[in-house]
Amino acid sequence: MRVKFLVTGGAGYIGSITVRELLDAGHAVTVLDTLEKGHRSAVDPRATLVVGDVGDRLALSRAMPGCDGVLHCAGYIEVAESQAQPERYFDNNVTRPAVMLEVMAELGISALVFSSTAAVYGEPQVIPIAEDAALAPVNAYGESKLRFERLIAAGAASHGLRAVVLRYFNVAGAWPDGSLGEAHTPETHIIPRILRNLAAGQARFEVYGDDYPTPDGTCVRDYIHVCDLARAHRLALERVGAGGPGITCNLGNGDGYSNLQVVSACSRVAGREVDVTVGPRRAGDPARLVASSAPAQAQLKWTPLRPSLDDIVADAWRWHQAHPDGLL
Q1: pTM
Q2: Which of 7, 162, 274, 287 is 20 to 30 Å from 59 by CA-CA measure?
């Protein structure tokens, strides 16, 4: 059934690829984005773009009417920056989107999918991480996402908001043909940082810390292909958009890769050596984050179609080769 969805942050990396996924599935899409971090050129021309903020009632009044559900991807995402500027993160990731929840309630829109994060778990005691693990963020980014999750829970209790909360792990990759991918300024994620360096002919790469309690001393993360994540977003929107109940799900591949293993995969895919140096730890980085995604597989009927780290890196490499300067 064709329905209309609002995607906040739809000009960003994850948002723009999800917009394309929704449109290809036959849905109508409106994008709400400030273009502070996103790119106008990343917005699919089949979508309607409204430039504005999720905390701006005027922008919401232009973007939200007629929508059957909302995918909330907008927000600040950089862990180190969140530690240095926590107030900015709480304002952008909690206070402003709270206005969006108010407008949704006023318009009678009860279907929401929230782009959350594994950072809400902090330093997990058990690996893989299940959805009932303790919620104890160790950085302001994770805390801001958790606070908004709690606002969503309050909305579910007070006016029947049906929300799917997707806590995903490290997102990477690109649209397989290289036409749409990750373009952040500055770039803080490990795979695009390595590949951007290699595309520019630079072989040196600094890893943040090698003294973590992991097999090779570097952080271990679970990587999910951005197209697998986009499909999970679509399935979740279709679920609550059709009146289905809300749920909270982790999204990951269930496998962890260390930073040094990621460097090796990038070197292998690109066919170029990487000169690794070790710098200090980055503030707020847990040692190991690996997901259990059983509820997503059971309730959303979702499984990752591109779980291989080499496949994820290969798609990202195709993007960086085609767009050495990112999106302008």
Answers
A1: 0.95
A2: 162
